[in-house]
Structures are given as C-alpha cells and as structure tokens.
Protein: Response regulator
Organism: Nitrogeniibacter mangrovi
Amino acid sequence: MTDTPLPRILCVDDEPNVLSAMERNLGADFDVVVANGGEAALDAIRWQEPFAVIMSDMRMPGMDGATFLAKARELSPDSVRLLLTGQADLESSIAAINKGAIFRYLCKPCPKDELSATLADAVGQYRLLRAEKELLETTVSASVKTLTEVLAMVAPWAFQRSTFAQSCVRHALPKLEWPDGWIYNVAAALSQIGCVGIPAEVVQADAAHRNLDPEQRELLRSHPEVACRLVERIPRMETVARIIRYQHSAAPADEALEVIRGSQLLRAALELERHATRENGLERPWEILRALKPAIPDYIIKALSDLRAGVAGRRAARVSELMPGWVVEEDIRTTNGLMVLTKGHELTETAIAALHRLLAAHAIREPIRVSSRTGEEAAAPSG
C-alpha cells in the first residue's frame, strides 16, 4: 500500500535559525519547504509543486509578511495563508489580513502543539477548497456545456460569438498562466446568454457597423447586464457573472483581480470576433486590440497576437476525420433539411458520434467544412 504524501507547507522567515527549528519540529507531520525572505518564497511558489499552506513571518526586510502574502495569493490562490509574527501591531495585522486574505493569525513565540494544530486546520481548509473547486470544474462546466448547446439551437449567431470567444480564451490562457482558467472559459461560453431575446438582424447590423435605432442600441447595450443577472444566480458563479457584466467596458478598480483581467480578455476576444467576420479578417490582431478603448493591457494583446493562424485552419473533412474541438464552418443539415449543427458549433465526442450515426443512415453528406480555432491547424490525419 502506498503511503499518503505529507501535506506540503512553505515556511517563510528571514532568520535561518527559525526556519531550521520549523523543519525539525514540523517535519514529521508535514513536507516542509523553507524560504529565507519573500522573494525566495515567491520563486518557490512559481517553480515548485503547489503548497497546501503558506506561513510567513510579518517583519522581514525588503518585503513584509502582508505584502508577501498578497503576492502569494495571486500566484497560488488555493494555498491557505497563515501569519506568524511577534509584533503586537494591530495596523500591520489588519493589513496582512486584508491584503493576503489570511486564514489565521498567530503570535510568536507559538507553542509547537498550537502551531501543529493550526497547520492541520489549514491543510483541512485547503483540501475542502480543492474538493469544491474540482466539483465546480466538472459539474458546473458540464452544466454550462448543456446551456451553450441550448443557446446554439435558440440563437445560433450568439452561440457562434461565444464559441469564438472561448477559442480566444483557450489560445491565450497557456501564455497568461492565470490560475483557475475554468472561470474565464465559462465566462466566454456564457457571455452571449443575454442575447437570446435580440433579433439576429440587429446583431448582424451592429457587426457591419450599420446605423441602429435607439431601441436596437439599448438591446445590445443591456445584454451583458441581463446575462450577469442570470449567471450570478448559479452558486459559486458570481465572479463569472461579473466578468460577463464588464465585457464591453472597463471593470471598476475595486473589483476582484479575476474580474478585471477576465473582462479585459473577454472584451479583446469579442472585438477579434467582430473583425473575423469581416472581409479583412484577422491579418493583424495586435493592431485591432491596440485600438480598443478603454485600453487592453499589452500582455493580453501579446497572448492573442498570433491568433490568426488558429482561425485560418479551415478545410473540408470527412466524418471519420473529425476531432473534438474543431469548429463547424457551415450549418449541417440532414438530406431532408433538418438542422443538425449550426455554423460555429464546437465539435464534441457526442456530436461526432451523432454525425457517424447519421452518415451510416445516409442522412447527411460529406465532406463537412470545419476549422481549428485553438491555435492549431486542422490537419488531416496521417496515412
């Protein structure tokens, strides 16, 4: 039987003798990693395996515990944070709690039994957070997939926009290295859910920069708010809802970091979609994004600057060649005219299996126009 690995904890202090004592006293129950100061600890978070708990001293030269824990939260939001300090400074303690969102505050010197018990509680909190997150990433994502498939049937033009936005997000996230990537993917998938009541001709007129009457402009202006109200009713989807809310405008400075940067990425993706539907396409995506107002951060523009190759991979494919993740480039109908999949639908294993059955029954015809919008060319299988 394989032994369960010890929970990984990161202990941060500027005194080597304190770190050595922590290794001796805690090593039997935890996989202890020590770091001399905030910068060394941030490097450990960036390059090592995830930590269940991050515990920091408050008073350290160069970077105090409050500042370090705030930075650690950005790099590893799932890690539970503890502050261990000899200061009786209430103001500094409040700063650490607010900036670093710490789980518990301990005063030095802290008895070994109390410290071990607190670390065990923190590990339990970490495992609870991870279990909840895994539930969100599986159950909620599956539910979102169902909602988007319904959107594809009710408003295929809105589904096409959200599918393109998802492709942009998936293209950018590996370069951005943001934690909790599912948040931004789900926000893109549900970004157009508020458009269900908007006539297709209004959206098409807006995309073509034709004049709209005041009522039509109000329909387009209000759809992110409608979507936000719908999505925020789903448990644990509040951040996703706020990202959707600000898909066409700058999020307020006091919003959560995930909302600010998620809405910027979504706004960039939707702007690229508007240009992709025009004749000139996406020859220079960086120029399109740099012209956006309010401005998009350069690091997001850079992450999307090579998107054109992913959008250009269009081809005619046989059903036997289809792969999950490819995008349908034309409506697929049965031989008697019934709609099967709309243009813009991202193929899943379920959808491909259904196409195989229809082909076997001679209900659809080959080839099918598809593309890969994830940064990879839709190349034919070898052989």
Summary: The two ends are 44 Å apart (CA to CA).
